[in-house]
Amino acid sequence: MHSSNHKISRDIARLKRLYQMSLRETRPGKRRFAFYDYLYEVYAVHGQWRAGLKTPEIKEKIAAVSRAPLSSDQDPLKLIVDASCTSDYKTRIQLPSA
Questions:
Q1: 4 near 61, Cβ under 8 Å?
Q2: pLDDT at position 98 over 70
Q3: pLDDT one-digit tens code per residue, 2-29
Q4: 45 partner at 20 to 30 Å CA-CA among 8, 82, 88, 95?
Q5: CA atoms of 69 and 14, how far apart (whole Å)
Q6: What's the average model confidence in pLDDT over 59-82?
Q7: Contact between 12 and 83 (Cβ < 8 Å)
Q8: pTM of the entire predicted model
Q9: Long-range contact pairs involving 94-97 (C-beta distance under 8 Å, separation at least 24)
Q10: Are the C-beta atoms of 97 and 75 separated by less than 8 Å?
C-alpha cells in the first residue's frame, strides 16, 4: 500500500473512533459537542489532504481505502464522512456541507 494510502487509512480509522466515541457520550448536552469534535476533525483531515493532494486524487484514495462507492460529483468532504460515519444515510445527508 502506498504511504499516502496508509496515512489516509489511519486518518479514516481515527475518525471512525472519534465518531464511535461521540455515540457513546451519554451526559446531557455533551453528546452534541462530542459530535462537533468529530466534525471538526473531519474538516481538519480534509484540509490536510487538500494541502497535499488534488481533489481527484483524494477521491481515488478514499475509495481505495474505504471501499466506498466513488461518484465523480461527490465532494471529498462527503466521502470522508461516508467512510468514517456509520449512521444511516438520512442522518449523513443532513450533515452540514462545506
A1: yes
A2: no
A3: 557 788 889 999 999 998 888 888 887 7
A4: 88
A5: 20
A6: 78
A7: yes
A8: 0.75
A9: 95/39, 96/39
A10: yes
Coil, helix or strand at residue 72: coil
Residue type, 89: Y
For 19-49, the DSSP string reads HHHHHH--STTHHHHHHHHHHHHHHHHHHHH
| Residue 86 in this model has a pLDDT that exceeds 80 | no
Domain extent listing, the chain: 3-93
Question: 40-55: buried (b, 16+ CB within 10 Å) or exposed (e) per residue?
Answer: ebbeebbeebeeebee
Burial label for 36, CB within 10 Å (0-12, 13-18, 19+), is exposed
Tens digits of residue pLDDT in 35-60: 888 889 999 998 888 888 787 888 88
